[in-house]
Amino acid sequence: MRNIIHFDELDSTNIYSHEHLEELNNFDIVSCDIQPNGHGQFERSWFSSNRNGGNCYISIILKPENINFLDELTRYVALRAADTLKEYGLKPKFKHPNDILINDKKIAGFLCESEFIGDKLKGVIVGCGINLNLAQDEIKHIDIPATSIFLETNKNVDKNEFINRFLDNFINNYDEFLNYGIKGEVLC
After folding, report:
1. Distance (Å, whole) CA 13 – CA 142
2. Percentage of the chain modeled with pLDDT above 90
C-alpha cells in the first residue's frame, strides 16, 4: 500500500520533501492540489492550478541502496510518465533533459534532486508536474507552449486515477531499473 501524504496547498512538494527527508520513507509520495512555488530545472517556476479537476503535483521519495543508474533516473521517470500518457491515447516525446511534449507543447516536467551526506545517499526526491486538466485560458500563464491531457483529448482526467496509474508504472519497473538502468528504452 502506498503512503501518499496529501496537502491542499504546499509551496512545493520538493521543498516539503527536502525539509522532511529524514522522516520520509522509500516510496512515500508527497502530493498537493496547488503549489504556488513549484519549480523545475534552473528554478524555473511551474504554473499550478486546481481548476477543472486539477493536475499532478507530486514528489516521490526514493532511498535506494544501489545507485549505479542514478544518472538515468530523470529519463526513467519520463519513460514511466510517457507510458501513462499513452494509456490516455497520447503520443509523448521526450525533450532533453527533463520534459515531455505532446504535439511540441510541454505537458510534463521532472526534477530529480539527490541529497548526500558525504558519499552516502540520504535520498532522492523526484518532483513530477504533469498537466492533466489545465484549461486553455490558463495556458497564457505559462511562458512556453504548453498543453494538458484535457486540451489534447477534450476529456477531464481523474487526478487520483492518473497518479495511481503513473505510480503503478513507476513502481512495477523500478527494481529492474535499479539493477539494469533503462536498457535502451527510447521515448522519441
Report:
1. 19
2. 73
Q: Are 122 and 40 in contact (CB under 8 A)?
A: no
Q: Measured at the alpha carbon of residue 29, what is the angle toward residues 120 and 93, in degrees to the nearest 5?
A: 90
The torsion angle over the Cα atoms of residues 88, 134, 74 and 120, rounded to 10 degrees, is -120
What is the model's pLDDT at position 47? 60
Beta strands 4-9 and 99-102, pairing class: unpaired
Three-state DSSP class for residue 25: coil
Number of C-beta neighbours around residue 127 at 10 A: 26
Beta bridge partner(s), residue 31 = 6, 58
Q: What is the pLDDT of residues 159-180, one digit of tens each?
A: 999 999 999 999 999 999 999 9
pLDDT tens for 119-128 read: 899 999 999 9
- Supply the pLDDT for residue 42: 46
- The CA radius of gyration of the chain, in Å to the nearest whole number, is 16
Q: Which fold does the domain 4-180 belong to in CATH?
A: BirA Bifunctional Protein; domain 2 (3.30.930)
CB 94 within 8 A of CB 77: no
**Model confidence band, residue 37 (pLDDT cutoffs 50, 70, 90):** low
**Helix (H, G, I), strand (E, B), or coil: what is residue 12?**
coil
In angstroms, the CA 52 to CA 129 distance is: 16
**Annotated domain spans of the chain:** 4-180
